[in-house]
Amino acid sequence: MSSNIVISGFADEISAQLDEQLKVVTDLGMNYISLRAADGKGIAEYTVDEVREKILPRLNSAGVKVSSLGSPIGKVDVEDEEGFQKQLGQLDTLCQICKLLDCRYIRMFSFYIPKGKEPDSYREVVLEKLKQFAAIAEKYDVILIHENEKDIYGDIACRCKDVLNQVGSAHFKAVFDYANFVQCGEDTASCWEMLKDQVVYIHIKDAIYDKNENVVCGTGDGKIAQLLEQAIVKEGYEGFLTLEPHLVLFDTLQSLEVADASEVISENKAKDGAEGYAMQFNALKEILNKFI
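Above: the chain sequence. Below: its structure as tokens.
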């Protein structure tokens, strides 16, 4: 494996318990995780002191570092002003947690759009709010990475490109999620061409068009093998490839979805989270071994 490419992953898909997460990832030979939830609590619900006392010593003991914080920032209705104000405070705390964990990135989103409403009608309010988020990140020298999540303003590539250009900050960049683009009916190759100059982080999650279903990476319509080879070999991508298998119904899934979680993962493709995580890890290694 190239030292410039590092595999990380959303380890809460393994188990709600941090100790089990760390055991599985270290058994696989991994030394990074994306910290989204630990011991049944989302990272945005932790205080800095709790992370210092309850999480950091266990990470250090396991020899595991944090590639990103899998935050819910921006995963709130665009018209929910109370929710937005709460998230401004949460983001400030998350930036402090980032610094404590020697982590550069916080994953975030660009607001849910009310059903039946035209996303473009919210463009100005979305941009104004994202700029406030970016200003907090700049204060702490942290990089927010915007995920192209389903049902938010920046769900399709053209709107992702617009918010990246309009926010125009070195502290606001893109994470590329293949499966989410597939589930929005987008062609991932076209999306990559449009966004690659601002992508600093990649999620390894695949899906198929006809069922909107998540599948093992490289077996869906995300063109993961093709686009990873292009990005790494031809275009010099360096950094994290973060496993987000979505192959089993894991404990915190419903808190991440607007829809019923069973609509996102209709049936388990592994016996448990640990097996699903290992399946995704091994499938990614198989893809990478062909060109690295």
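The two ends are 6 Å apart (CA to CA).
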